[in-house]
Design goal:
Elements (H helix, E strand, L loop, with lengths): L1 E5 L9 E4 L9 E10 L2 H8 L10 E2 L4 E8 L11 E4 L14 E5 L3 E3 L6 H21 L7 E4 L5 H13 L2 E6 L2 H10 L3 E4 L5 H8 L4 E6 L6 H7 E9 L11 H6 L3 E4 L7 H16 L7 E6 L3 H12 L9 E5 L1
Parallel strand pairs: 9-10, 9-12, 10-11, 12-13, 13-14, 15-16
Antiparallel strand pairs: 1-2, 1-4, 3-5, 3-7, 3-16, 5-6, 6-8
Helix pairs in contact: 2-3, 2-8
């Protein structure tokens, strides 16, 4: 089978696209014929060696997939050949990745794809959707009528956060860097979309939410906690999910006096049960048209190195040349 893999960590150029043996499912596993995969920042960190995890060699890159069940191993009853499925959490913690024509995954990391949801959409919503749900529902406990702020509402995670928050019934504030992205953020459901290059973000937020923000979702690698805590409401919550090496100052006094809470998490540490709960809501909202994938471009599997390079330029170097997910077709 064709696959994109590495034999050592390093820059995008270490990625090879070539032939590898097709895997076979064993107890509790499912063989999926892959129709679509996508790129996440964590994929580039693992490939580059910035996140140290055990890697099978050769290591197939990628976390997310969507496709059709080709075969099931013993003890698998929830799926059968021909079922459409999507999943995430591959390529992590010693598991093989997804950038291949066929993938074997443990049954607990796969979910049925709704009839009206394409494989491109399902894979593009996988990791970012589960991440957004964990932060909004499990940790942030966002409620209808509350106000949420998220930086970068047209990015992979940001666009999922905007849509899920609206599905929950919250008021949503977000930022974007171009007029086109501001318009897209509004189309995704943002009640207030601010061009951070042209407008005073803090003034607009305070005008829209004079009592403060109930849940602040931080996507920046170096958060300004003094600024953020100042804009949180009483008992406000903050979610952080970026900036592995960040060590910014933290205003302890103002934070505890307001009774605030801070949550940090990595999606791949969530249990199978927690991720299943997220997948159930993702499927329900996607089937109802309340959650749509924000796809920037679709590339062939042979462009895996190019896709990783582009993702890295935007995640680490803030190039601003991506507006959504990169989907690849094996």
């Amino acid at each position: 089978m064709r696959a994109a893999f590495i034999k050592q960590t390093g820059p995008p150029d270490v990625i090879t696209v070539g032939d590898l043996p097709q895997p076979r499912p064993t107890d509790g596993q499912v063989l999926v014929r892959v129709e679509a995969v996508d790129v996440n920042p964590i994929d580039t960190y693992v490939r580059g060696g910035m996140v140290t995890m055990p890697l099978p060699i050769p290591y197939i890159i990628g976390c997310d997939l969507a496709g059709v069940v080709e075969a099931v191993g013993p003890q698998v009853t929830r799926f059968k050949k021909g079922d459409r499925v999507w999943g995430s959490n591959q390529g992590l913690l010693g598991r093989q990745g997804t950038f291949a024509e066929y993938v074997v995954a443990d049954k607990q990391w796969l979910y049925a794809t709704p009839d009206d949801v394409t494989s491109d959409t399902a894979t593009a919503l996988a990791l970012v959707g589960i991440t957004a749900h964990l932060g909004l529902v499990r940790d942030g406990a966002l409620a209808a009528g509350e106000t949420l702020f998220v930086n970068g509402g047209t990015g992979g995670v940001g666009s999922a956060v905007v849509q899920m928050a609206k599905a929950i019934g919250a008021r949503v504030i977000t930022t974007a860097g171009t007029p086109e992205k501001v318009n897209l953020a509004r189309e995704l459901g943002a009640d207030l979309a601010i061009n951070y290059k042209e407008e005073d973000v803090d003034a607009r937020v305070k005008e829209f939410a004079p009592q403060g923000v109930n849940l602040w979702w931080e996507t920046l690698r170096e958060p300004d906690f003094d600024r953020t805590v100042g804009m949180l409401a009483q008992r406000g919550r903050m979610v952080i999910m970026a900036g592995r090496d960040a060590r910014p100052p933290f205003p302890v006094g103002p934070f505890y006096v307001k009774g605030c809470r801070l949550y940090g998490f990595a999606m791949f540490n969530a249990t199978a049960q927690e991720q299943q709960a997220a997948a159930d809501d993702i499927n329900r909202w996607a089937a109802a048209g309340k959650l749509k994938a924000n796809v920037d471009r679709v590339l062939p599997l042979e462009a895996a190195a190019e896709a990783h390079r582009l993702q890295e330029e935007n995640t680490i170097h803030q190039a601003g040349t991506l507006c959504g997910k990169i989907v690849l077709k094996p």
